[in-house]
Automatic annotation (TrEMBL):
Gene3D superfamilies: 3.30.70.860, YajQ-like, domain 2 (3.30.70.990)
NCBIfam families xrefs: PRK05412.1
Highest taxon of source: Bacteria
GO cellular component: cytosol
Protein's recorded name: Nucleotide-binding protein B5F75_01065
HAMAP family recorded: UPF0234 (MF_00632)
Alphabetic keyword roster: Nucleotide-binding
Source species: Candidatus Avelusimicrobium gallicola
Family membership noted in the UniProt record: Belongs to the YajQ family.
CDD domains from the UniProt entry: YajQ_like
Coiled coil location: none
């Protein structure tokens, strides 16, 4: 009998984030409350980060709300957005970095693997870098595993790929 498997991943499409940043920057240039504040949102794809900058902390919070709204409208989960502490910059400005979580962190992968084992399903889960592979002899067991994982919150958005 053949083995069946699927991968559990947590990926964010940076092209969609880039579109959201463009739309948010257009909104910022047109809004009256941002006139003359040198507010900006930038996407650093290499480091998987959003950089928010404005004249004060309140405006940075507003920028974060704007970009998160744009991202959510495009179907990207906000669980994978990790806002850092707002920092004071030179000239009385404020800035914030929002890290974009790509992949499943090792501690979350162990937590997911433990949840699968605790459910006593006839599947085996193995951690492979920033993703998990779940395999079984039964497709039904894999479906049950997916249902179990959809019902729990692990702090990252999970996607199921490579189902075979």
């Amino acid at each position: 009998m053949a083995d069946y498997s699927f991968d559990i991943v947590s990926k964010v499409d940076l092209n969609v984030i880039s579109e959201a940043v463009s739309a948010a920057n257009k909104e910022i240039t047109n809004r009256y409350d941002f006139k003359g504040t040198n507010s900006s949102i930038e996407l650093n794809q290499k480091d998987n980060e959003l950089k928010l900058a404005s004249s004060d902390e309140y405006k940075v919070n507003t920028l974060r709300d704007i970009i998160f709204t744009r991202i959510a409208k495009r179907g990207i989960p906000l669980k994978n957005m990790l806002p850092q502490k707002i920092e004071a910059a030179l000239g009385g400005n404020a800035k914030q970095t929002v890290k974009i979580q790509q992949g499943i962190p090792a501690d979350k992968a162990k937590e997911i693997s433990k949840a699968i084992k605790d459910a006593k399903l006839k599947v085996s889960a193995s951690i492979q870098g920033d993703q998990l592979r779940v395999s079984s002899k039964s497709k039904d067991e894999l479906q049950n595993t997916m249902a179990l994982l959809r019902g729990k919150d692990f702090g990252v958005e999970l996607q199921f790929t490579n189902y075979r």
